[in-house]
Structures are given as structure tokens and as C-alpha cells.
Amino acid sequence: ESKLVQLRKRFEHASSAEYPEPDYQTLLRFLRARDFSIDKATAMLQESLQWRKEHRIDDILGEYKTPAVVEKYFPGGWHHHDKDGRPLYILRLGTMDVKGLLKSVGEDELLKLTLHICEEGLKLMKEATKLFGKPVWNWCLLVDLDGLSMRHLWRPGVKALLRIIETVEKNYPETMGRVLIVRAPRVFPVLWTIVSTFIDENTRSKFLFFGGPDCMHAEDGIEQYIDTDKIPSFLGGSCNPSIPTVVEAIPAKLYTRCFLSACHCTLIHEGGLVPKHLYKSESIEEPNGTIQAHDHHGLYKAVDLKPGQLFELLICNTDPKSVLTWDFEVLKNDTLFAVYHTEKEIEQSGTDDFSSVFDGPDFKEGTNYKKIEQSVKCRPKEGVQGSHEMASTGTYVLQWMCPPSCDGPAQLMYFHEILSSANYKGSMTSLQSGFSSNSLQSR
């Protein structure tokens, strides 16, 4: 409370011509975001207030006009509230045509849409505070990933998402109370490893993942967080907030009807592919088709392999049911990829670049080690993303090999990460690994 009062005094004498004096909720959010450091919170808030002035954010609720393409094809909207009284926003990301929306309205317009949603969230939190007679500091996000595929990993789409995350993190800190990720498919861990790096650690701790189809009734399901009669019908609940994709004449205001309208559901479009005749730009493509387009913070490493040479990554797992995820792209010549598992201790000493850790006399495939992902042949400019639930402890081995028949060395860029089992709820079967060659062709 003392820090809050001190921070308030720093902004009391700010010129009203510069920016409006922030309210206590805003001050507290920025204090929390900077661990109650007054100097750091002051700097962060000053930058945000200046940003709001430059981009006229205070006028966005009254001036923003939803583009027709967004009205018809953006699958998101406000929907009642969770059990803690937080406004609930539902996003059906799995049915979103990321490429179609980007090419139709552009990255700037999608960012503006996100900022409009965030401003609505701030308004709804204040209304919820009055409605429930208690402080409601943040809102809840439910993301349905049913239908998510490699097309959602389109490089410019990931780039736009990271820009949106960065902007929201800077200017709307501590507004996210809980994020429910439901019906997560096998490709989700790859997307998560890419974007989670850019999400504040405190925000990441608010994510809960539900991999199975029955995210409602499963043990520790979403019924813990949302009343049953508020859970959408497409997740097994009795509330029907969706409208068919063929409906085109619904006014935009109906998509964001305030949850305070008693028992009415917000209408949330089901998404679908944006017709190409609505595209305004055909120039948003992957630079040279390479993975550098989202090689943020040096996540990816490069490897050169001579014909017949192997490259193996050894992952020692001590967290049963954690998820091993990978993303790599072959830049030059063919490459073979496979994943192995063993519970036997591995000694790497004595191996050379053309031998596997399993080539010793103590290893026999099918007896004390096994191939858990069958070999896949990747050609130049092809990418592979996949994940595997590590059901047991032991050593998991990611193996790449340049076939001996190649006429020159192979080159690839790779990234892998282990996702802890702690935040995953329900069934993990839909997160089992899978390959998607030609992922860069998923236009």
C-alpha cells in the first residue's frame, strides 16, 4: 500500500496535456509487473503512457471499426466470466486462418484488433468489480486449439504473434489472470517453445494445458475454472456461443456483447479460410524459405554433416510425462531423422562422428533401446516439427544423419526443448509426436 501511494504521487503532478493520471488499478498492475520497484514501475508506466498518447489508445474503443474480414473470419469474442468473476475471452485459434487474415488486413490491423480487445478487457474488469462487489484485477483467456496444424506455424504469422505479445506485455502487464489452453494437438508444443520465450515468466505460470478431447469432464478439467453452464457447447458444455461460418450479416457489435448481459452468450465466429480474392497483399512470404525468419534469441543451432556422418542429441529425462519437442529445417542435402529411447546408461566416450551411441556391443535394438519415432527422410528446404510425451525416465536421443549416398555435406538448423509435465492437465495422447515434412509449404 505504501509503494502504491508513493507511485501515485509520482504521477500526480504530471501534466494533463501529456497523459491522464493513471488510476490505482493501473498503478498496481505496473507495480506488480516490476516486483514493486517504484523506479522500474515508474519507467515502465511512463513509456506505456507515452505510447498510449502517440497511438491514441484512449480513443480506440470509440473509434475502432472492425474490418469486414475480421467480422467474418476472426474466431474470438468475450463470453461471460470464469468462477472468479474474471471476464472470459474465447479464441478458437485452431480454426483461424492466420495467413488469410494477415494477407487481408495486415499485421498492423491485427495488432490494432488485439489492442481493442485489451481495452475492452480493462473496461469489463471495472464493470465486473461493480457487479460482483469485489476487485477484479484481470481477465481469463480460453484458447481452443482444435484444428491447429503446421499452417499455423507459418513464419510471418509467428512473427506477427511475437510482435503482438511484445506490445501487450509492455502495455497491459498483469491483466491476464489465467490462460486455459484446451484440445492442444501434437504441434502445439513446437509453437509454445517458440512464443513462450517472449512471455513474462509470471504470465507463463498462469498457463494451463489440456491435451485430451475431454477437457471439460477430465480430472482437473476446465469445470474447475468455468461454471458448467458457461462452458461452450464445442467443448462439451451447454452454452452455444458459436455461429456458422456461412453467416455473414451479423453486426460486429454482437461479437463483443458485454458479458454483463445476464445469460446471453457472446457470438463467436467459427473462423474458416479467408477467400483469396480478399487478399490485399501477396508479398508476405518467408525470406528465402529459411528458418531464420523466427530464429529469435538464437534458439536455433546449425549443424553440418558429411556423407555418412551422424549428429545425436542426448536428453536425460527425470520428469515422466514431460514433452520433448523439436523443430528443424534441412538447408542443404538429404537428412535422415529418428528418435530413440533407452533406460541403460550411455557412455559417449570413444564414439566418433560416424558412429552412434548405440553402436557398442552393450546395446541391442529392441532389447535395451528402441526407436520411438521411425526414420523420416527430409529433403532440402523441408522442415519437421514434432513432439513426444516422454512417458518414462531414461535417455532420449535425437539423431540426424547425412546418408552415405549423398554427393555432398548436409546442413540443418535445429531447436529442441523439454516442456515440464507440471502444467499439463488431462490426457496427453493428442500430443504424441508426428512429422510434417514440407512444413514451409503449408501456405
Structural notes for this entry:
With 443 residues, the chain is α/β, with parallel strands linked by helices. The chain folds into three domains: 55 residues, N-terminal domain of phosphatidylinositol transfer protein sec14p (Helicase, Ruva Protein, domain 3, Orthogonal Bundle), CATH 1.10.8; 221 residues, Phosphatidylinositol Transfer Protein Sec14p (3-Layer(aba) Sandwich); 123 residues, Sandwich (Jelly Rolls). It is 25% helix and 23% strand. The protein is built from ten helices and 16 strands. The strands form four sheets. The chain has a six-stranded mixed β-sheet with strand order 1-2-3-4-5-16, with helices on one face. It has a four-stranded antiparallel β-sheet with strand order 8-15-10-13, covered by helices on one side. Strand 1 and strand 2 form a beta hairpin. Helix 2 crosses helix 3. The longest helix has 26 residues. It holds the Pfam family CRAL_TRIO. Keywords: Mitochondrion. This is Protein real-time.
Helix content: 25-40%
What is the H/E order? Answer: HHHHHEEHHEHEHHEEEEEEEEEEEE
Structural class: alpha/beta
**CATH class bucket of the largest domain:** Alpha Beta
Question: Would you tell me which CATH topology of the largest domain applies?
Answer: Phosphatidylinositol Transfer Protein Sec14p
The low-pLDDT segments are 243-265, 285-297, 426-443
Distance between the termini: 52 Å
Largest sheet: 6 strands, mixed
CATH architecture descriptor text of the largest domain = 3-Layer(aba) Sandwich
Counting DSSP E segments of at least 2 residues, the number of strands comes to: 16
